[in-house]
Amino acid sequence: MLLIKKIKEKKELSGIPDNIVKEVLDKVLKSYPSGLSKKDEKLVIKESRSLLRNYVGRFKAKSSASIIKMVEKGRINEALMLHASTRERMPFYDKLRKMIKDMRPGRILDIGCGLNPLAVAEKTFFYYASDIDENNLAVVKKFFDMHSIQGEIFIADMRKERNFPEADLCLILKVFDIVKMPHKEVESLLACLKCRAFIMSFPTITLSGKQMKNKRRIWFEIILNKLGMKFEIISSSNELFYISHSGRPKEDSGPGRN
Predict the structure, then answer these.
(1) E strands in the chain
(2) Shortest CA distance to 114 belongs to which of 92, 84, 72?
(3) What does the pLDDT look like over 11-54, one tens digit per residue?
(4) How far apart are CA 160 and CA 199, in angstroms?
(5) How far apart are CA 51 and CA 69, in angstroms?
């Protein structure tokens, strides 16, 4: 459809699969009469893009090809600085890597990974990188190939996907807020994940850079308690981390999907 093509002309949206763009577009079109005028068409495109940006986060307008070139030249930190989530997490990555290392995972599942694997993926574990944006995954694949990291990348819409691979550790970093996931869907997702431990996070600053008044997500803590997932909270300057154990130990920590 021509409208889908026009919506994806924005670089930051070009990696979203057509079926997801169509889903958002169809919702927007319900508010407009059939036979769009030129003015309405522009409004539909604008509204659709606005909604789709919730899926990909705050990404600078760089093509995946440009970011891949940075990765090829070893400019990893520069690439990480292009994405708001990884940029804001830069001062905390040393501690996050140590937390992951102490858990000694054989397999990691990173849902809504963005460029996060560039900062934490290592040869010592198998890495499942899942995202809704093909451009992010193309960069991650290049990084994996260059550094001989065992892993698998795949597109998944976390709002609907309930067949994620098993892993020792699951990372879901600042994604729930980005995709504006309803609380019931968050609970449904966590309940289906076959992972021994979780590191999940939420932002503690607003888009304008101001500190949030209510940093803890009480609704999220209620879900964790309901699912029997004990947790502890760790804070950075701009992010709140929930470290949780599901009580579902893994018998096999070998690479690859089960």
Answers:
(1) 107-111, 126-131, 151-155, 167-173, 195-203, 230-235, 239-245
(2) 84
(3) 778 888 888 888 889 989 988 888 888 888 889 999 999 888 87
(4) 20
(5) 29
